[in-house]
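re the bet — no i am not wrong, look at it urself. input seq straight from the record:
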Amino acid sequence: MGIPGGFGSFLIAGLTSAMLYGITTLQTYVYYMHYPEDAAIIKFLVAAIWILDTLHVSFMCHALYYYLVKPKYLLLVTVALNHRR
């Protein structure tokens, strides 16, 4: 049971996205700590971008689980149930 061709690049993209999310989170934290006097609209835009990046990583993790983990788990359960018969 192998992984189809496009799933390897999908996994690498997801892991890279998660790594970049960590950098974005650090940058957001540093921004709020070092620039408390910035305009409210700039602070709002920084927060909005961080929230959108959080949603992106959440959906990417869900997609990775759905396409890479769940089918294998369901196959193992199906094989185990069929083996009992």
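see?? Residues 40-84 form the longest helix (45 residues). told u. also The radius of gyration is 20 Å. so pay up
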